[in-house]
């Protein structure tokens, strides 16, 4: 029971962080278009700079996710979690102040630089925190609940954005981000794996002389070891056949997710003239379906079907979801497609749970960080491939009349992930 203490505070921390970050998603497309191409429904420049932003963020997180995960194994989850919780306040704060073209570019630069360090780190470290406190048999369920908390925050944030002006949306988002950082500092207790393996504090509270000599040497050793993030990533991937296969699934699943995120809203704006309110409606439908699924269905289905089968179910409907978007013949089709999130949201927590069980109790941060690093490679590749494709098929220079062609190609990337999941088998580790 004592091991589970603090999970409620972790859930609230994740909820507040996601609430703040998701609140600005429906508005950011309109803000970008208004700053770069005022009065237009099609803007190749907006698509290209969004793709460049995603690629740069992916390049940074490729290095930073394994590093932050490894550092959290050494110094504690809470200490490392403080960094993204505070830094992510800055970009939304800039747009809360002003959304003119000049301030948009300031936001754009800060968003890239900060996200290169912090993007995805809160859910990654939260998963490691759960793995510290929950036995293997219950992790898939709790991972699903954690994802459900994120989906619930997504719904609440999107509903809020639906009824707020753009200016007020960014202001409220900034306030919630500040509250989330303060809540974590005051209420979240750092996780301890066991009584014999306490985390090394970043600031020693022991004897000053010992701290000066031994403490500094140990800290430097830990830091240098953690900095070998790329080497850690490759060695971790080669440690188990299951991890290797799960990494391939995670890569192509992220490739599809990032491609859809960067293309879909621009496609809907050009094809059906959607704006912030329609984007918010779609996200609310998707978020409610995902929340119900992760909080109610996954705890029931995970023990019955097992993580690998549930993963395949989720990825299959992920493919269907994308193909339906690509062939949307009416403005009502995207709303129907959004309902498929009730089935495809299983994939992410299942991948994370499978990987978690392959790692030792003192390597959970490293494990989740390495998988996040693999997903970051998709953040680099996806915009380079799909952003030009989306811009081409939404322009007058398209080789044939199929505006959703780029989204269909994204669906094929998701199909590769689904096929690989069918070959995923839980195997014993190859190396210790």
Automatic annotation (TrEMBL):
Pfam families: MFS_1. One of its GO terms (molecular function) is transmembrane transporter activity. Keywords: Membrane, Transmembrane, Transmembrane helix, Transport. Its main location: membrane. Gene3D superfamilies: MFS general substrate transporter like domains. The keyword Cell cycle does not apply. The chain crosses the membrane at residues 45-67, 79-98, 105-130, 142-161, 168-188, 246-268, 280-302, 322-346, 367-393, 405-427. It is found in: Membrane. It is a multi-pass membrane protein. Residues 6-432 form the Major facilitator superfamily (MFS) profile domain. One of its GO terms (cellular component) is membrane. This is Major facilitator superfamily (MFS) profile domain-containing protein. It comes from Glycine max.
């Amino acid at each position: 029971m004592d091991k589970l203490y603090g999970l409620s505070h972790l859930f609230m921390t994740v909820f507040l962080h996601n609430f703040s970050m998701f609140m600005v998603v429906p508005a950011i497309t309109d803000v970008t278009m208004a700053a770069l191409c005022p009065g237009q429904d099609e803007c190749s420049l907006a698509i290209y700079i969004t793709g460049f932003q995603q690629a740069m963020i992916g390049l940074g997180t490729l290095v930073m996710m394994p590093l932050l995960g490894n550092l959290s194994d050494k110094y504690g989850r809470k200490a490392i979690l403080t960094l993204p919780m505070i830094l992510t306040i800055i970009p939304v704060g800039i747009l809360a102040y002003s959304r003119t073209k000049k301030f948009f570019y300031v936001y754009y630069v800060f968003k890239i630089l900060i996200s290169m360090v912090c993007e995805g780190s809160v859910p990654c470290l939260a998963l490691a925190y759960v793995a510290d406190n929950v036995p293997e048999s219950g992790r898939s369920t709790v991972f699903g609940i954690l994802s459900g908390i994120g989906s619930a925050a997504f719904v609440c944030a999107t509903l809020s954005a639906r009824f707020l002006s753009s200016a007020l949306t960014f202001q409220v988002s900034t306030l919630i981000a500040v509250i989330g950082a303060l809540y974590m500092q005051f209420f979240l207790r750092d996780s301890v794996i066991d009584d014999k393996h306490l985390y090394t504090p970043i600031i020693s509270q022991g004897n000053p002389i010992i701290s000066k000599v031994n403490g500094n040497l140990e800290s430097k050793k830990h830091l240098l070891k953690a900095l070998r993030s790329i080497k850690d990533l490759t060695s971790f991937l080669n440690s188990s056949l299951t991890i290797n296969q799960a990494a391939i699934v995670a890569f192509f699943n992220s490739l599809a997710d990032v491609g859809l995120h960067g293309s879909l809203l621009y496609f809907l704006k050009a094809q059906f003239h959607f704006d912030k309110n329609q984007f918010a409606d779609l996200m609310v439908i998707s978020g409610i379906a995902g929340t119900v699924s992760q909080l109610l269905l996954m705890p029931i289905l995970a023990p019955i079907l097992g993580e690998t089968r549930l993963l395949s179910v989720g990825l299959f409907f992920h493919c269907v979801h994308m193909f339906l978007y690509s062939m949307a013949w009416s403005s009502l089709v995207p709303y129907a497609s959004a309902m498929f999130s009730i089935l495809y949201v299983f994939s992410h927590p299942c991948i994370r749970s499978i990987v978690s069980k392959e790692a030792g109790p003192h390597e959970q941060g490293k494990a989740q960080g390495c998988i996040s690093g693999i997903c970051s490679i998709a953040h680099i590749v996806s915009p380079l491939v799909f952003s030009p494709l989306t811009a081409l098929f939404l322009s007058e220079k398209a080789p044939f009349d199929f505006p959703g062609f780029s989204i269909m190609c994204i669906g094929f990337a998701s199909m590769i992930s689904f096929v690989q999941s069918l070959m995923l088998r839980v195997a014993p580790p190859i190396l210790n």
